[in-house]
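STRUCTURE:
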């Protein structure tokens, strides 16, 4: 199943934020699937056009601190957005943010983000029922308990898992994060929690691992908290990516199977990705297909429900990564 709610699509440019998440990753992917000879005919069997789930403050509070959630619902919201999207430079000037170009006020972004969290939760519910679901959104893996970070205001992945646990729909989960950036918020928030096992395969160098491990007061940089399984890939090691990922999945295979796996399925390891902070890892379209089939077949062979999120994918080519995988996965599900 695919959840693609056209009402849900917006770009950061609408808010004056110059981060190149293009609408095309949803629109072109969907157009390609619709134009497929078999998938086009069977669209009713795989397309869910409305996100039908509601996320409340209580849901946010299972993952984020009370202090942070209160800030999001106060006059401090704008500052929190500016921090999470890194819209100020070191001199305090606006950076990749031009309010004059905004057609929507910055504080309306929160509502949009909460609706993405709803989409992630809905995706998990459908995955539990049908085995496989891919949501055209979500994957905000950098958000920490106390603050937003790396374009991520709320950690939708964990909000969904905690809500499912609270409703007794699941007891445990795996998070398999193949976005090019380390899933640092997810790892930090679930540190020491055996009910959520995290695997992250990511650039060995670069953001969010390019800072100091400790600040000048000796406090640990939360981005360095390890996932249960971390697979750093150095620049030039692209040819080893799939084999190393397979080795990581082998470690998961030794653990009891979870009730659900959430795949944070970023397209940003793609060599054509346009965000500068993805440049330390450059996979071809073929390598990305190998990656996606490896994870999908591993989970399917173990009969684990699979909820997929779009996560990072920047510029005008990232849709190719999602489209090639979904064409294959939907046919696998329908035929
Ligand atoms: Zn990313």
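SEQUENCE:
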């Amino acid at each position: 199943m695919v959840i693609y709610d056209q009402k849900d699509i917006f770009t950061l440019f609408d808010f004056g934020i110059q981060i190149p998440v293009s609408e095309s990753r949803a629109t072109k992917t969907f157009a390609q699937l619709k134009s497929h000879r078999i998938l086009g005919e069977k669209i009713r069997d795989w397309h869910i056009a409305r996100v039908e789930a509601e996320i409340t403050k209580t849901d946010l509070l299972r993952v984020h601190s009370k202090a942070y959630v209160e800030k999001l619902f106060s006059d401090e919201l704008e500052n929190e957005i500016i921090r999470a999207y890194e819209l100020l430079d070191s001199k305090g000037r606006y950076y990749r943010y031009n309010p004059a170009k905004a057609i929507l006020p910055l504080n309306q972004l929160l509502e949009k983000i909460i609706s993405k969290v709803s989409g992630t939760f809905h995706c998990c519910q459908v995955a539990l029922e049908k085995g496989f679901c891919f949501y055209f959104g979500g994957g905000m893996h950098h958000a920490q308990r106390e603050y937003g970070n790396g374009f991520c205001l709320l950690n939708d992945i964990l909000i969904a898992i905690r809500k499912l646990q609270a409703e007794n729909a699941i007891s445990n989960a795996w998070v398999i994060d193949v976005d090019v950036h380390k899933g640092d918020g997810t790892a930090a928030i679930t540190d020491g929690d055996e009910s959520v096992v995290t695997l992250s395969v990511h650039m060995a160098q670069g953001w969010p691992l390019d800072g100091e491990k400790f600040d000048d007061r000796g406090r640990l940089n939360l981005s360095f908290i390890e996932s249960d399984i971390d697979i750093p890939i150095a620049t030039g090691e692209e040819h080893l990516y799939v084999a190393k990922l397979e080795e990581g999945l082998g470690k998961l295979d030794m653990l009891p199977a979870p009730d659900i796996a959430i795949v944070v399925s970023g397209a940003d390891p793609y060599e054509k990705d346009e965000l500068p902070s993805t440049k330390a890892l450059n996979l071809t379209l073929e390598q990305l297909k190998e990656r996606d089939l490896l994870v999908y077949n591993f989970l399917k062979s173990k009969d684990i429900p699979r909820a997929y999120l779009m996560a990072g994918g920047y510029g005008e080519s990232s849709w190719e990564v999602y489209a090639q995988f979904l064409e294959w996965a939907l046919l696998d599900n329908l035929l």
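REMARK: The beta strands are 2-3, 47-48, 132-135, 173-177, 196-203, 229-233, 260-264, 306-309.
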